[in-house]
Description:
This protein is mostly helical. Helices cover 72% and strands 4% of the residues. It starts with a helix and ends with a helix.
Amino acid sequence: MAIPSIITSGFVKTLSGLGNNSDSIIPLVAKDVISDCALVHTYKKEGGKDDVREKAIEEFGTGALWLFGIPSFRFLIDKTIYPMLGLKPELDPRVLNNKNKRFDLLHSFAKEDEKKVFDALGEKTKLFNKINLPFTNKQMYKGVYAAKFLASTLLCAFALTKLIKYKQKTTDERIKKDIDIKRKKLEKNQIFSGSQNIYKNFQDKASNRNISFKGGMAAAVGDFAQDFMFNPLKNTSILDGFIAGTRLKEGRKGERAEIGVKEIFQAVFIYLLAQPIQMAFEFIGKKAGLPIELDPKVIFDPKLQEKLLASVNDIKALKDSNDMLKSIYNLNPKSSLVEILANNGTIPVVKDKKSIKAISTFKPIDENEVKKALSNIESLSSAMSSIKKIKAFKTFAVLGNVAIAICAMGILQPKINIWLRKTLNHGDNRNPAIVQKEKEMEKALA
């Protein structure tokens, strides 16, 4: 592959990831990491001397745990627990729901390895292929996935809590070091001894604060819980809620208002407004005759025109079908329409190297999403004369959505908090909680 093609392919994949605001953490991570850089820079210029260290530890540490935490724990479970039980982590337990996912139809269309897994669902699970367990494979698929969701979320939440505690500990150690330097300059007299005891009591009091894990994870069952279990973005939102609660609980006196402002900005611009902003851009594009609803991997495909023409009959067949799901599985996996829908993330496929081998029965297919995608494909096909403008506007829309969140969280939010500091603390731009702690320790030496 030529270098220009590699660069183009990388750009399209990046744009595709950033533009998925429904079930991907990629936009979240991009917004968070870049806004954290802007936030730290703002506090470095306008905040107190301890702000940069605390913000860097907390924000970049949180970002790292978001990026690697839940996916890493899930990957570890996929590579250990599933093989021990002889299960396939690729199988989405939602397809095992006879009532809603039409299991029999999926079973009939399953190919090769997938069919073997479906055939064995009624068998007893074996540990290490030797020890029979009192559960069927079908039960174990559902149970292990639920356990994976709970374990990865709670372990990551625990790590995040420890990170927040570590941030505060480093500040306490810095203050202690400054006090120790001053203490060494004082004469060893009764006043010093008294202050030493006061300081010790202060430290003991600070170290005795415990973290309690009170959550509604036990209630994470049923359809509502499934929405969070199978959606990485919503799974991460649980962590964000936990982080917000922990930060407010562990927040020192004088800084909880700042924490509240930050968490509100985080929730609004990462979760609440991401999709509405995307839909607003799509609405503008539609009004301007520039349909951008489809994934960049579809819009930027160099053979798009050819594939659209080849998909006309298949699109009509699907739209006229009385059983769309069955018609989808009857499609030729090598067809242009299957490739378009797969690149759009609408249907799951099994790939052999770079070519599509089959439509996967291991993942559920949402018929409403397929109908929406077919409509968007037809809209794009009708506007192919403006494809250059469509590509440009799609790029602007994706990057604009990210930029809005970054500016709000990384620039506007810290400036608001620093303004509040100065307003409430007579022009002092330092963290009021740290200032208060320093005063208490200084008073202990008086």
